[in-house]
Request: fold
Amino acid sequence: MREIIIEPTENPKVMKFVTDYNLIPGSVELDRESDISEIPLAQELFNYPFVNRIFITANFIAVAKEDTVEWEYVAESLKNIIEDELLANPRLYLQKKKEHYLIYSEMTPNPAVMKFISNKMLLDGFIEVKSREKAQDVPLAKELFDAFDYVKEVYISDNFVAVTRDDRFEWHEIMNSVRSFIAEFLQAGKTISNAEPHTHENPMLKIINREYTDDEQKINDILNEYVAPAVENDGGKISLIEYDRENKTAKMLLQGACSGCPSSTATLKNGIQNILKQFVPELVENVEAVNG
Reply:
């Protein structure tokens, strides 16, 4: 319990409630027109109709009252209110609860890539960092590269971080260290990325800077509906980057866990190619991969 001392002032309408520590740097003066949404102590004090002004500075709270009551009848009650509120919020302002991040790991079809999934959204869109030299604008990726020299790539999207390792370790040897590191980074409230995330709606516009043709849009719509959800669930992303109408060939950009995945070629040929040939046989006969 904070020790509060009631101390009269030269003004009979004002009473000081002195604490045993400094409350805030500077000072603040509040009346009933002030914004007190972030100051629970002021909210409680102004519940008393006779309180018309509050002045807070250094180590005391000065309360100004109306003439309708005498201090001898209300000072002790105000002292109790102040003690209780300072116990809950020692620095006066509402203590914002820290985000609590729960991180769990999940294997992907690419054995070099592990997904670390958060219970909260991390980005509205996605960021892919292919090397430590390109991580300057993405603090989470930069710190992962700095902390673990076996990290090769980092892909951050929505509520997960996909990390690509080199071949010096297996994930069962390093998974817990990486997961704990990501959780601590997020729990500390650090900035994930200073770079603008790419949007999921049409990420290729940033790469090829053009609109899809009608044929490309048909292919892309099928990818988004039948392919993208499963791929993104595995920590990757697949997008149409080029379409050769003459040879009926669609070229796909593979990102995240898909990039460099040993099974990606089989997935393209046995899965995506078959889906496209089924829905748009007049447009697609072959699918090729381009690793991002």
